[in-house]
Design goal:
Protein name: Sugar nucleotide-binding protein
Bound molecules: NADP nicotinamide-adenine-dinucleotide phosphate
Shape: globular
Largest sheet: 7 strands, parallel
Structural class: alpha/beta
CATH architecture of one domain: 3-Layer(aba) Sandwich
CATH topology of one domain: Rossmann fold
Radius of gyration: 19 Å
Pfam family, one: RmlD_sub_bind
InterPro entries: RmlD-like-bd (IPR029903)
Strand order of the largest sheet: 3-2-1-4-5-6-11
CATH superfamily of one domain: NAD(P)-binding Rossmann-like Domain
Number of strands: 13
CATH class of one domain: Alpha Beta
Number of helices: 10
Oligomer: single chain
Order of helices and strands: EHEEHEHHEHEEHEEEHEEHEHH
Length: 297
């Protein structure tokens, strides 16, 4: 395989993916350019224009761009579908016609959350607009008569303090002594962004095709994951006053009811990769160490 083009390269996962791919990749931005990135407006641009900008030899097209916030999708179903569904289908159709492998990054929100450990072959049952948009693309891709890959992600975490980084975003709140209300009934399969990126980079080269759950091997509740981070931080700074309060996901006033248990079965992923995703305990230690220094014990 030769070069990869990453749509959504300026995003949380896209940046890590470009690092994992190294010099074999070109990234596209929408509003946040960086040196070497190419401009991309999903509502306007077609693949031909992007390939002109990206240069010769693109054989893999990663599609990570779009509105990744379920609240925004619920608020503007038509506007977000234009990017998350219409532009993705257009790009994928054009890619397969040119013999380029499309790699679509989907979400555990394609499931209704009534039980966890979902495999890749179970029927899709989304209950949110974001999940329906992801499911629509997945189901359409399954009808393609050329090779394709769908990577279904669960929650992605890192030390970054941006909105999409489930753990890192808590660090400023913990520093400020906040009360953290976390759902005990929201269960997912968290994975560190660098592991997700490495898997996304390697899977196509290892021959993965169809749907693959790209997620951590252990299901965590949001409450337990936050408790793990808080404990790691307290080992470094016992004076931290932040408190953790259990709640239900149903107590949080979202526009739509959210799926409760979206944890994923990762048997297929493990059969494809010779290495394992790092455990969340290790990730929490690393985040705590970066933010609060070494342990005091
Ligand atoms: N993060 C997670 O925990 C998670 C979990 C499950 C699935 N996913 C999926 O993984 C993918 C990446 O997620 P992420 O967290 O990296 O999202 P993100 O940080 O919000 O990145 C979104 C990307 O889409 C680009 N974009 C937005 N609107 C665009 C438009 N109109 N035209 C072209 N590009 C546009 C953004 O470009 P600019 O920044 O340059 O504007 C950015 O590069 C998404 O498909 C998401 O659904 C993520």
């Amino acid at each position: 395989m030769t070069k990869a083009l990453v749509l959504g390269g300026s995003g949380f996962v896209g940046r890590a993916l470009l690092t994992a791919l190294g010099s074999d990749a070109v990234g596209a931005h929408h509003s946040r350019p960086w040196p070497g990135s190419i401009p991309f407006d999903a509502t306007r641009d077609d693949l031909a224009a992007l390939l002109d900008r990206a240069g010769e030899g693109i054989s893999r097209l990663y599609l990570l761009h779009g509105a990744a916030n379920p609240e925004i999708c619920a608020q503007d179903p038509v506007g977000t579908a234009a990017i998350n569904v219409v532009s993705v289908k257009r790009m994928v159709a054009d890619a397969v016609a040119r013999g380029i492998l499309p790699i679509f990054v989907s979400s555990d929100y394609v499931h209704d959350g009534t039980r966890g450990g979902r495999t890749e072959v179970e029927p899709l049952t989304p209950i949110t607009e974001y999940g329906r948009q992801k499911a629509e693309v997945e189901e359409w891709m399954a009808s393609l008569d050329r090779p394709w890959l769908v990577a279904r992600l669960s929650k992605v975490v890192s030390e970054a303090e941006c909105a999409h980084s489930v753990l890192g975003q808590l660090v400023p709140q913990i520093r400020g002594g906040a009360t953290l209300r976390m759902a005990t009934d929201q269960i997912f399969s968290p994975a560190h962004v660098d592991d997700v990126a490495r898997a996304l980079a390697e899977l196509p080269l290892r021959g993965a095709r169809g749907v693959v759950n790209v997620a951590g091997p252990v299901a965590w509740s949001r409450y337990d994951l936050t408790a793990c981070l808080l404990a790691a931080i307290r080992r470094r700074d016992p004076t931290v006053t932040a408190t953790l309060v259990p709640c239900s996901l149903r107590d949080i006033p979202f526009r739509e009811q959210r799926p409760l248990n979206t944890s994923l079965d990762t048997t297929k992923l493990h059969s494809l990769l010779p290495w394992r995703f790092r455990p969340m305990e290790e990730v929490c230690e690393r985040i705590a160490e970066a933010a609060f220094g070494p342990t005091r014990e």
